[in-house]
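Please decode residue identities from the backbone states below.
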């Protein structure tokens, strides 16, 4: 298994190009199942999750073609991926694949809407809590689907005339349940209204793509989405939006090392809540439409953070802000309200010398003067990148094991960081 070695203490300086968003690319690729015509996506990040999803889509009968990046573009420009689901030959998404990536469960929406039936494995356990699928199933039932659980699989059947639009009020904000309901409703009969919908930019990006495919959707990006079903969708070209989580992560990596740098090809306007926290931490950030300039002012001030659905502070940046605060001048309070058990990084950060105490959903982080490199273990995607941030500032060498978690969500992480001065290398194993 690969490892990443980081010799800490280098000050990061320079530009880091931001890739397309993993959390937008995945639902967009799944949306290709809704039409017989090809969907061509550009700015697709090169990630293990994207490759795995291509495999799953192929299982279902789609042809996927990786067209690489456009000629003359920088090595960090994303890929063009063409997905053509002319015919769906299989309505089963198997356990071996769905259990490796929870988002692949989302194929249930398009399969049910287009084929009238779906057999999709329950995603199973996950390092960041139980993560149930009850909201998805309630929404699909409200649209007339009959749902049974058989041997670990959700077996769903649409009524003979197809799914029927419905008013769906989610008791809790769920990104995945909003994606799935929107995709299913795009091909249902009549109108669907989603109340308490997720407002994440990735949800709005999926809606934009569905509209380019001929769907009738209004209200994306707000908590009420209206979808008027159509009988068929067609092909389209769509560019995946930039990754706001990667942007925030590298902003914190730069700040952690006392550095100064610019994140390019991004959308800083998706990061308002994060930017407020960085200001509280004493980091100077200036923006234009596609770039974010980050400048450390020496020390870091402690912050108080509570994760919330968008537009609040993202849970996917919680581990990273905790790593940043391990060296702040005072006590920070970080509360996780989205996922239970999303504090797996705490014990690993402690191995580097961080002083963190946990009580229920809240962590208190007492800033220390110095972190010291050690072997640590990646436990999930965002937790593992928090260890990279800490390792960049730690004295000596940090050895990060189980790097495959990082490869799921951060494209060319070691190359991007080395290009701005980090002493970081991957050891193949
Ligand atoms: C997506 C993101 C993930 C991010 C999360 C929250 C992708 C591929 N993943 O995950 O990176 O951390 O949004 O911003 O886009 N819930 C239920 N029942 C359900 C569904 C969800 O109780 O049927 C709960 C979850 O357990 C969690 C909360 O709702 O507590 C939010 O989860 P959700 O927004 O659905 O997360 P994902 O879509 O899985």
């Amino acid at each position: 298994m690969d490892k990443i070695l980081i010799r800490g203490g280098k000050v990061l300086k320079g530009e880091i190009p931001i890739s397309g968003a993993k959390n937008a690319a995945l639902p967009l690729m799944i949306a290709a199942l809704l039409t017989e015509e090809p969907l061509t996506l550009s700015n697709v990040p090169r990630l293990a999750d994207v490759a795995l999803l291509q495999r799953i889509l192929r299982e279902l009968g789609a042809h996927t073609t990786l067209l690489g990046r456009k000629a003359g573009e920088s090595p960090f420009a994303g890929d063009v991926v063409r997905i053509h689901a002319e015919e769906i030959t299989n309505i089963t998404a198997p356990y071996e694949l769905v259990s490796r990536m929870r988002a692949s469960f989302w194929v249930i929406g398009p399969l049910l809407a287009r084929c009238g039936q779906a057999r999709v494995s329950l995603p199973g356990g996950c390092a960041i809590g139980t993560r149930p699928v009850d909201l998805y199933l309630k929404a699909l039932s409200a649209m007339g689907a009959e749902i049974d659980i058989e041997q670990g699989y959700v077996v769903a059947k649409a009524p003979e005339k197809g799914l029927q639009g419905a008013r769906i009020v989610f008791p809790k904000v769920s990104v995945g349940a909003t994606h799935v309901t929107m995709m299913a409703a795009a091909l249902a009969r009549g109108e669907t209204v989603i109340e308490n919908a997720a407002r994440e930019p990735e949800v709005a990006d999926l809606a934009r793509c569905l509209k380019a495919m001929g769907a009738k959707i209004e209200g994306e990006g707000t908590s009420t989405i209206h979808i008027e079903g159509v009988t068929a969708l067609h092909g389209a070209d769509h560019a995946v939006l930039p990754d706001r989580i990667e942007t925030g992560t590298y902003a914190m990596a730069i700040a952690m090392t006392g550095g100064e740098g610019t994140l390019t090809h991004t959308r800083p306007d998706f990061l308002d809540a994060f930017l407020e926290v960085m200001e509280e931490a004493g980091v100077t950030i200036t923006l234009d439409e596609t770039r974010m300039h980050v400048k450390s002012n020496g020390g870091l001030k402690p912050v108080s953070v509570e994760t919330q659905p968008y537009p609040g502070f993202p849970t996917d940046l919680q581990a990273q802000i905790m790593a940043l605060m391990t060296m702040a001048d005072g006590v920070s309070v970080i509360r996780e309200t989205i996922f239970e058990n999303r504090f797996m990084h705490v014990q690993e950060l402690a191995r580097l010398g961080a002083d963190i105490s946990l009580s229920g959903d809240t962590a208190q982080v007492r800033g220390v003067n110095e972190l010291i490199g050690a072997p640590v273990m990646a436990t999930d995607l965002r937790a593992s990148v928090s260890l990279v941030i800490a390792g960049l500032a730690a004295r000596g060498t940090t050895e990060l094991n189980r790097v495959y978690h990082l490869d799921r969500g951060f494209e060319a992480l070691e190359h991007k960081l080395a290009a701005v001065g980090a002493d970081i290398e991957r050891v193949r194993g």
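Observation: The mean pLDDT is 95.
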